[in-house]
Amino acid sequence: MKNTFGNHLQITLFGESHGPYIGAVLDGLAPGIKVDEDYIHHQLSLRRPSGKISTARVEKDPFQIISGVYQGKTTGTPLTIIIPNKEQKGEDYLTMERIARPGHADYTAYCKYHGFEDYHGGGHFSGRITAALVAAGAIVLTALKEKNILIGSHIASLGGIKDREFENEKEDIQSLNQKTFAVLDDTAAEKMMDIALEAAEQGDSVGGVLESCILGLEAGLGEPWFDTMEGMLAHALFSIPALKGVSFGDAFSMVDQRGSEYNDAFGIKEGNIVTLTNHNGGINGGITNGMPITFRCAVKPTPSIYKEQNSVDFINKKEHTLKIEGRHDPAIIHRARVVVDSMAAIVIYDMMAGRYGTDYFMGENE
Ligand SMILES: Cc1cc2nc3c(=O)[nH]c(=O)nc-3n(C[C@H](O)[C@H](O)[C@H](O)COP(=O)(O)O)c2cc1C
Questions:
Q1: Claim: this prediction has a pTM higher than 0.90
Q2: Which has the higher per-residue pLDDT, 269 or 327?
Q3: Given pLDDT bands bounded at 50, 70 and 90, which one contains residue 195?
């Protein structure tokens, strides 16, 4: 069982959807990093359900940092953030049957934890746990921004509607990081939301593709063979619930191209070595080449849907139909993007701390 990730910066996630708290521990942060609570709130607000394709539940995240911060800056000792859960579970009188939600982790969690798992609201597999990841990620993103490293993602496609591509990456990332529905072309955003609403009316849900960009990284970062930049990012990103595919650069659109089309030719720009295109997504041989890292994540449709589905009572091994009650949004993708940014930030920080040492991110001692 592994709820900790990272080599030089480690994140541990804990909690269950209907337990008293969820939270994160960050171990290995440099001392002196500014902890901007307003920015943490902002990032959490991007993950919370909001806008016309979300249910009206009010899910405030009044986080508390209970260790590792003194006078607004990291101390360098383990930093623990906790977020209380509003919905706590009542006593169970009857656990004689359990119907698996198709696409969710109810059945696999039971297989692994043998019925000892707290399954309420998806337990440890609830999307709720990602709130703790986003709160922790906000601190790491702040440290990266001090080194002029920016991370941002947009919904590249949803229901066949495509967003425009990144043009001016820095401006695009800055604008995306203010949007709750992160799409660069507002007309495309409206169409995507209409498709999600149409699915909701039919008791159904939709998925899509996120495209992310990491800007400002220098060449030379990555630890072949096994802790390559792609390897570390993919490992971390695949931990995000509902994320089912990761690709780098133009990975899957390249398969029918020739080398002469896909290769990124080199050039010199303002005295720096650059590539003239970025089909490889800023990584060669598992090592950054100084161009923006670009990657795409496939996010699946919300598994909890209102349509009736075939399932089983896995305690009594009986077939059962399932009609899910409760509040579930018809899409996860718009909320998952800040989770992707947070996870990517933790990987980049980890790899930079490995190369330059923990104190590389240390802030000024005023
Ligand atoms: C931000 C976020 C919110 C989520 N919210 C829900 C939800 O409301 N209902 C649901 O069924 N799944 C939700 N999920 C997805 C499930 O947690 C996930 O599909 C489940 O744990 C199974 O894991 P897998 O999809 O990676 O196989 C959410 C995921 C994320 C990242």
A1: yes
A2: 269
A3: very high
Phi then psi for residue 314, to 5 deg, are: -80, -10
Instruction: Give nearest CA residue, ligand 1 atom 30.
Output: 127
Please name each of the domains of the chain with its CATH number.
4-361 (3.60.150.10)
pLDDT higher than threshold 60 for residue 132: yes
Protein residues with CB under 6 Å of any ligand 1 atom: 47, 104-105, 122, 125-127, 130, 240-242, 300, 302-304, 328-329, 332, 335-336, 339
Q: Ligand 1: which of 237, 302, 334 to mutate, judged by most atoms within 8 Å of the beta carbon?
A: 302
Question: What pLDDT, in 10s, does the model give residues 343-359?
Answer: 999 999 999 999 999 99
Count Cβ atoms within 10 A of the Cβ of residue 56 and give its class: 0-12 exposed, 13-18 middle, 19 or more buried: exposed
- Ligand 1, atom 22, lies closest to the CA of 104
Does 93 have pLDDT greater than 90?
Answer: no
For the CA of 300, the nearest atom of ligand 1: 25
How many A from CA of 243 to the centre of ligand 1?
A: 9
Specify the residue with its C-alpha closest to ligand 1, atom 27. 242
Handedness of CA 53, 55, 56, 59 (dihedral sign): negative
Q: What is the pLDDT of residue 86?
A: 85
Give the end-to-end CA distance of the chain in Å, rounded to a whole number: 42
How far is the C-alpha of 364 from the C-alpha of 183, rounded, in Å? Answer: 36
